[in-house]
């Protein structure tokens, strides 16, 4: 396995870890200090978050067979970062601010790293 493919795989395992743990935690916690409708949506999205974590894990395990799925997963994380940016712009940054900025930066850096390394791997593979 080439280094760029290994880096993509590491990013996928990281996304998987975050998605699985975050999804389970948010499904369990919910959003009890709000309306039933918002708690319902929150837990539904937590299920999607958990499923994306599982898909990322499978993609990391089968990285040599994957191509477009890596880009789709990276794009999904970038869309999540966009949602976070919109939230921070409209309602503000939650406390502690440094933690939430760290989340946001990692949601930008990791998928961009995945896209770049996957593009490099693809170019080497198809030469």
TrEMBL record:
Q: Which UniProt keywords apply?
A: Membrane, Transmembrane, Transmembrane helix
InterPro entries of this UniProt entry?
A: DUF4345
The record lists the membrane-crossing segments as 7-28, 40-61, 68-87, 99-121
Q: Does the keyword Cell membrane apply?
A: no
| Region forming the signal peptide | none
Protein name per the record: DUF4345 domain-containing protein
């Amino acid at each position: 396995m080439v280094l760029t493919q290994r880096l993509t795989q590491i990013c996928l395992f990281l996304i998987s870890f975050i998605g699985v743990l975050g999804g389970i935690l948010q499904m369990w916690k919910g959003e009890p200090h709000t309306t039933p409708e918002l708690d319902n949506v929150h837990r539904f999205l937590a299920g999607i978050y958990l499923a994306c974590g599982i898909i990322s894990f499978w993609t990391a395990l089968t990285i040599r067979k994957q191509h477009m799925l890596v880009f789709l997963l990276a794009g999904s994380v970038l869309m999540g970062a966009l949602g976070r940016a919109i939230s921070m712009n409209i309602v503000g940054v939650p406390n502690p601010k440094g933690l939430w900025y760290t989340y946001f930066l990692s949601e930008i850096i990791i998928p961009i790293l995945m896209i770049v390394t996957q593009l490099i791997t693809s170019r080497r593979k198809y030469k």
